[in-house]
Amino acid sequence: MGFVRCALPHPVYMVLPDRCLIKAAEDYSGINLPKTSAEVEVDFLVSSESGVLTLVDEKQTDNPRISFCTPRYEVVCGLTPQQDAYFALRLAPLSLRTHNQIARGAVRVATRTWRMYEDLPDLNRQVYVQAGARQAQPALTGIEAILAAWKQARQPMRGEPVSNAGPSPAQLTFLANVDTLIDLACQVELEKAARQDRIPVKGVVPAAIERLSGDAYRFLLAVPAELKAGEYLRAGIGEAGDSGPGYDGVIVESTGSSLVLRFHQSVDLDLLRRVE
User: Fold this and answer.
1) pLDDT tens digit string along 244-259?
2) How far is the C-alpha of 45 from the C-alpha of 115, rounded, in Å?
3) Which stretches of the chain are DSSP H helices?
4) What does residue 237 show for φ and ψ, rounded to 5 degrees?
């Protein structure tokens, strides 16, 4: 990905309605934005030689959205009904999202000149009518060249790692460290659960909760207990802290008189039913 220059040998026209400028001033009061289309034209002309940074949103294939960006703001445009000029839909300060998109690659549109018009009648009057007679003057947008340059700008650069090449060694190390931290946290929780007081149980039944993965069972408590979802418990036989047979589980539901434990491994229901 990078910056691709798109040189257009013809002028580019844009219709920038006053309401677009007024709405920008209302939505972003206090931010230095252009007040007239003439100011926008000057900003574009300043960048005409190096090229105005341009982004493309191709969600609407028949009329893609084009964002022309200056150092202070962007003008989001579509095409006019005649597709002979750009029509400004929104003017706004450069957002963080736009900065990130530009950093990933953009097109530099370098045209012979830029011309801004307040509305479509103004465009038609000044471009197509000369000396009182209507003449078919060439009015091109260069949209095909811009789209072609955009596709080139979004291609991975030579030597740039491909996104589907799999995790790098550094990423694998990071994931391994995360797994270790998770294991340590689980071990701490289980040790904490092992030190808890013994909770007598009078019955165990399967818990029919479809959203849960793994084996889940409801334990009917002989005495009320205040337990919270997310805590770890060991269901087994013997005194608290005993390393006898049992299963480690996490509480997913607690009502005071019963609780639901989820076990990630298969469990022996007969053994659970002998839990005291």
Assistant:
1) 556 778 888 888 888 8
2) 9
3) 18-27, 37-46, 96-104, 120-127, 143-153, 169-194, 269-272
4) -110, 135
